[in-house]
Amino acid sequence: MAQLPWHKSLQQALVQRQTDGLYRYPRLRQGPQGVNVKVDGQAFISFCSNDYLGLANHPEVVKAFQKAADQEGVGSGAAHLLTGHSQYHHELEMALAAFTGQQKVMTFATGYMANLAVIDGLMNRGDVVIQDKLNHASLLDGSRLSQATLYRYAHNDMASLHQRLHQTANIERKLIVSDGVFSMDGDMVALPELMALAKQHHAGVVIDDAHGLGVVGDAGKGTLQYFADQIAEKPILVGTFGKAFGTAGAFIAADELIIETLTQHARSYIYTTAPPPAIAAATLAALQINQHDDAYRQRLQARIEQFRQGASQLGLKIMASQTAIQPILIGDDKQALKLGQQLEEHGILTGVIRPPTVPKNTARLRITLSAAHTEVQVNQLLSALEQCHVH
Ligand SMILES: *Cc1c(COP(=O)(O)O)cnc(C)c1O
Prior knowledge:
Blueprint: H1 7-19, E1 29-30, E2 36-39, E3 42-47, H2 59-72, H3 80-84, H4 87-100, E4 104-108, H5 111-120, E5 128-132, H6 137-146, E6 149-153, H7 158-167, E7 174-179, H8 191-200, E8 204-208, H9 223-226, E9 236-240, E10 250-254, H10 256-265, H11 267-270, H12 277-292, H13 295-313, E11 325-331, H14 333-345, E12 348-353, E13 363-368, H15 375-387
The chain binds pyridoxal-5'-phosphate (PLP).
């Protein structure tokens, strides 16, 4: 007996996805995350994690996790607003407020949930949310949940944003939402121009800096710090821990009034169990490493430059990215899939990114670099790209 009466059409859709080169499945990793990974039984040099500083398996981070688990056990046991909010969550929130220079911070189990919260908790039906076309899916879902009217503007195109602001001039509450560093292209938001437009049109701004924190700006303070000299006021900031911090979870940093409002209204904060305290403790350790040791960022930057130089010598279609995300545009889905497979035969793992994650006909190899990569490993990547005739 089929579990769903429309079983047949589900099956047809899956077969179609396979034919189109769009089928996805999770692969099985054995052992820790890192630049050397074993996946489905095969060893690879990985260029597809978001562990940009190599902290996911860092001894200090692991030790902080273990120590907190010894003291407080594993589960937080309740939502933040009941008894789930531990001393470790509190310490992390205080440290992040100091780190970001914002008044107050609240933490979440995932970035996905923080993005739902920051939009759903502030906007309602009749309000307007204006988003960059290439924003992360979780930000779009936040808009949907809030029931505010969603407008999108052409990627990082301030004329297009300006037009949207004109179009919605009679709406009182408008929120502009953008990634800080775009997750599939690696480029940065035109923040000074965006902030100026927001001010002129009385709109609020949210920046999701999942890929900027730990990577760009002094002390890894991210996109807002990178542009600090050019912006007068700080936008609301979302940051995640699953990327450069090497742990899991996320935060919103903002004025106290905003955080208090979100605490009352954000459903993805209220109706969920707080993350384990040991995760907060590990994140605090990662934050300290990030803040006090620039060597990680310098190594990452050296690998980024090495890759970009080598790739342009090979004539590869790299994008205008100064960050750890260095995609090579392929275009055709099946061609991208084939190249990804060929690279795997050379022991190199890359992200093969296809629609709907990216626009149609822009399938790409998403190469991400890490402070943990060696110069030799990046050379191995470049030589594999050459041998596979990626161009
Ligand atoms: C990864 C990511 C998220 C989601 O964060 P998780 O903690 O993985 O749920 C949100 N926004 C952007 C831009 C991301 O890249």
